[in-house]
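sanity check this:
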Amino acid sequence: MIAFKRILCPTDLSEDSLKALPYAIEFARSFDGEIVIIHVLRALPAPETDFGFGAAELLELASRMRQEAEQSLERLLKGRVPDGIKVRKVLVQGNAADEILRAANEYDVDLITIATHGLTGWRHFSFGSVAEKVVRMAKVPVLTISTKVLSPEADEMYATPLSIPS
């Protein structure tokens, strides 16, 4: 039997990115697993004298960004994960898709649940798709959740377990 004991659930700290969380919760509940929630902070540019600030200022900015991300993640998750579900929160800095894939390997996850923001046209071409790269490059199954098709009833998944065949 396939068991999803460790589920990676990336978030960019938007409500839409958490549309995959109910699925991660239900898999963790069904398999007595753990959810690894990851947020990737953007990498800061190397300090250059042209910007008028140096390494010390960049370190301070990076520290502030991390602290704000930690607080945002705590606020966003508050009340969303039921008691009894094991959760590990991970904050890293770098390219989102690359860091998600690295974390999947590092934390030995069995499944990645990720929301797709549904960018199309030039925006998709310009910005790329984190979910698309994760799907193409992941060494484990990836469950993608479209933020466009989820109904408000999906939030009731916290109370209504998914039916997962044994």
